[in-house]
């Protein structure tokens, strides 16, 4: 699972502690942009400085005399490309050129004490902390550990279909469940649809998010969709009312309920060259029976034998923060990988500071033994029957 920006930022910070690297370490720095003043409009001096997320340009003398600041935390200037464009757009004699990754965050530009940039010979190069390679390595190691442990670690929502096979136990794909929000073991008939128009063909399709009606004549489709998240169509009854008012279509309510739980079906023909037919749209029926939940194991224990078929369960599982043992093993793995790559001259396809990184797992993970890491995390390894 891809790490969020906040999760990655936290792990990068901790990885640098393991690696004994600072944001100003030479191996973490890259050149971002250059800037100088072209000595135009009778200017006599010019300086540039960076403090926090503020870049300050000052012109002394001439028509452009003044102080000009750029807030690099603002959305309009939060990449190095945007900062370069802003400097050039000032029209005050400053000339900026991009020399690094234009998509890098401008907030990563390192502090710079006020220094002269008056004239081409006083051109200043602004550096930034390049975490891209370390982030790639962290994500690769994190993915490998999740794969070896057979699970996801961070909290997420899941919507699963499970074969019941006449068993009272339902094993979820993910352990460490926080809550179950929906469990359905049976279905019911929600509505009946038909088409009696002049189109040559007509069909009904139910997706996870919408119901689609299609009438086709020749190569032309008349496509009508109803999104379940819309307040106008979030119940079966509302869908029936709307569809029944649609020209050439008929809808009959059989049982009402939330439209979001209609069972997904590929396009089903309700009219072909052979004639017309009704189509009954089914819905999941949320169970009102008791069941127990083993939160840590991710196991649902029913109090009865369910009907043979498929159950649907919606739940949230995982941790809000990475468990300390998992984080420790991850950081150790990242440290080992980083140091191995820094020593290996053959790893030319990677970029760690001054080294290059490839996204090819075969080259990135050449020293990785995630299975050994998972073996040291028995509490967090998922083993399904």
Q: Tags for this entry?
A:
385 residues; alpha+beta; 3 domains; 5-stranded antiparallel beta sheet; 20 strands; 21% helix
What does this structure look like?
By secondary structure, this protein is an alpha+beta fold. The protein has three domains: about 30-130, no CATH class; about 135-155 and about 320-380, no CATH class; about 155-285, no CATH class. About 20% of the residues lie in helices and about 35% in strands. The protein contains seven helices and 20 strands. Strands 8, 10, 14, 17 and 20 form a five-stranded antiparallel β-sheet that branches. A five-stranded antiparallel β-sheet has the order 13-12-11-15-16, with no helix packed on it. A four-stranded antiparallel β-sheet has the order 4-3-2-6, with helices on one face. Helix 1 (about 5-20) packs across helix 3 (about 130-150), helix 1 crosses helix 5 and helix 3 packs across helix 5. The longest helix is centred in the C-terminal third of the chain and has 20 residues, at about 325-345. The two termini are about 25 Å apart.
């Amino acid at each position: 699972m891809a790490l969020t920006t906040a999760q990655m930022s936290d792990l990068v910070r901790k990885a640098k502690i393991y690696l004994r690297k600072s944001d100003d370490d030479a191996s973490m720095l890259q050149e971002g942009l250059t800037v100088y003043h072209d000595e135009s409009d009778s200017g006599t001096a010019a300086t540039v400085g960076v403090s926090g997320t503020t870049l300050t340009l000052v012109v002394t003398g001439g028509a452009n005399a003044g102080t000009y600041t750029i807030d690099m935390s603002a959305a309009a200037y939060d990449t190095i490309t945007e900062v370069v464009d802003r400097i050039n757009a000032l029209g005050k004699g400053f000339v900026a050129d991009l020399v690094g990754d234009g998509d890098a965050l401008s907030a990563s530009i390192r502090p710079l004490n006020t220094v002269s940039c008056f004239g081409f010979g006083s051109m200043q190069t602004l550096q930034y902390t390049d975490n891209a390679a370390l982030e790639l390595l962290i994500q690769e190691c994190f993915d490998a550990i999740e794969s070896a442990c057979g699970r996801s670690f961070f909290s997420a929502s899941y919507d699963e279909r499970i074969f019941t096979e006449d068993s009272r136990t339902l094993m979820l794909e993910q352990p460490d469940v926080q809550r179950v929000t929906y469990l359905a073991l049976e279905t019911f008939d929600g509505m009946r649809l038909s088409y009696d128009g002049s189109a040559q063909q007509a069909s009904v399709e139910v997706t996870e998010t919408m119901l689609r009606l299609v009438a086709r004549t020749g190569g032309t489709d008349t496509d009508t969709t109803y999104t379940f998240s819309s307040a106008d169509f979030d119940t079966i009854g509302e869908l029936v009312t709307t569809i029944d008012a649609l020209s050439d279509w008929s809808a009959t309510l059989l049982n009402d309920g939330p439209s979001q739980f209609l069972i997904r079906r590929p396009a089903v023909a309700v009219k072909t060259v052979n004639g017309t037919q009704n189509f009954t749209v089914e819905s999941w029926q949320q169970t009102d029976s008791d069941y127990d939940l083993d939160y840590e194991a991710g196991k649902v224990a029913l109090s009865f034998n369910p009907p043979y078929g498929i159950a649907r369960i919606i739940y949230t599982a995982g941790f809000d923060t990475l468990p300390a043992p998992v984080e420790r093993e991850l950081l150790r793995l990242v440290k080992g990988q980083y140091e191995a790559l820094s020593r290996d001259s053959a790893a030319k396809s990677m970029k760690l500071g001054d080294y290059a990184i490839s996204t090819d797992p075969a080259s990135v993970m050449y020293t990785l033994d995630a299975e050994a890491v998972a073996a040291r995390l028995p509490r967090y390894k998922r083993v399904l029957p």
